[in-house]
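Sanity check. The docking grid for NAP depends on where the pocket ends up, so I'm generating a full predicted complex first rather than guessing from homology. Inputs follow.
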Amino acid sequence: MARVLVLGGTAEAATLAKALAGHKGCEVVLSLAGRTADPQPVPVETRIGGFGGADGLGSYLAAERIDALVDATHPFARQISEHAAQACTNTGTPRLVLLRPPWEPVARDDWHHVASENGAAECLPASARAFLALGRQRLAPFATRADVWFLVRTVDPPDEPLLPGPHLTVTGRGPFEVDGERKLLETHRVSHLVARNSGGDGSYAKLEAARALALPVIMIDRPPPPAAGPVVPDVPSVLEWLGALMP
Ligand code: NAP
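Predicted complex below; grid placement will be based on this.
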């Protein structure tokens, strides 16, 4: 019986956990950081919270007799990925990274590439009405732009205002549909979309809506990829890799 730790927090991790649930050859533990108050239930053992850095994760791998680790975290969650790489090297645990491919612009897209949220905040013009499709942890750089109105979407309703300046918070959990995204942009007279190049299907609709409305997109490019090691783009490829480990 192979024990597999899946580092999650993404739709792909949940899909992988569901695919492995009940598989006779493996036991799966899904690990979540605990950022979402009410994560979607998955039919496998789930643990929540940090490990205490690379050393803590290494100790966990040894104590729980983990045979393989699948890093299915978000493309922008680089710290946990670096910790996983280090912990697996230290403990000799096989590691696979599941990394969805980035989005690419197509005809009629008007993307402006920046390297960070700071860069995005700087390049918004005065009096813009910007949809920040970023998550609440990424908003701090926009606090200085009191001359811009912001639309913010969060999974859980915030307990307090997310920005000091003019803004509106709406709640929603993906996957999102194009019609709904277009209506959201139109209703709030959004002039700019600020997004990170997360890739995947669940949040692509906002880009299609922006294209349909000819809105400029401030696209925050991905940080450098995780440390060396095998990387696959989808769940079937992970199952293939795990197949070699499972009896
Ligand atoms: P991060 O900066 O890479 O990680 C910060 C710390 O959170 C890590 O050092 C680790 O704490 C803990 N952590 C992160 N993911 C964990 C996991 N799956 N299981 C246990 N501990 C975890 O990550 P982040 O950007 O804050 O994202 C947190 C989680 O949300 C990730 O799991 C990611 O998949 C998910 N997520 C992130 C984004 C995003 O935009 N970054 C978007 C959607 C979902 P210790 O050092 O104590 O182990």
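Relevant for the grid: The longest helix spans residues 78-91.
Also worth noting: The two ends are 7 Å apart (CA to CA).
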